[in-house]
Amino acid sequence: MEFEFIRNTLMGEYYVKCSMGHEIVGRWLQDEIGKDWQKIECVEAIIEQALAHPHGEQFLEGTEISLAIHGDEVVVQENVLAHGEVMDADSEFDFYDSESTASCGIEDFAIMIEQWKRFLSTR
């Protein structure tokens, strides 16, 4: 997973841009976690718990996008997808769904969180 952090110094805003297929991860980091150090520390604690208990499941529900860690896989998805609505396999929303959920390895995810912390710390 490739990612880039962007800072708009005039507006004081921060943006996260992720590679195709992982856009939802960037939206989650930008919109659900943002510059909130308490939330960042919570994510780090969840990563540590997942690494200590690889057979368990860790979950962090966000307002619109949630994070789940199953073993060494991180899944980020919009909450509306978690409500279990079944759609046709050839649905016109398949492309949209592909932008609404993504997964990556826990190591890559932990690196992204660490780099986000460093990015926010440099002003």
Brief sketch in words of this structure:
This protein is an alpha+beta fold and 123 residues long. It has one domain (3-121).
Q: Could you give the topology of this structure?
A:
Layout: E1 3-8, E2 13-18, H1 23-33, H2 37-52, E3 57-60, E4 65-70, E5 73-78, H3 94-98, E6 101-105, H4 106-121
Antiparallel strand pairs: 1-2, 3-4, 4-5, 5-6
Helix pairs in contact: 2-4
Give a verbal description of the structure.
With 123 residues, the protein is an alpha+beta fold. It has one domain (3-121). 39% of the residues lie in helices and 27% in strands. It starts with a strand and ends with a helix.
User: What is the count of β-strands?
Assistant: 6
Strand content: 25-35%
Radius of gyration: 15 Å
Number of helices: 4
Based on Cα principal axes, name the global outline.
globular
Biggest sheet descriptor:
4 strands, antiparallel
Q: In terms of per-residue confidence, which ranges show pLDDT below 50 for 5 or more consecutive residues?
A: 85-91
Going across the major beta sheet, what is the strand order? Answer: 3-4-5-6
Proportion of residues in helical segments? 25-40%
Pfam family, one: UPF0231
Protein name: UPF0231 protein BIY20_20785
InterPro entries: UPF0231
Family: Belongs to the UPF0231 family.
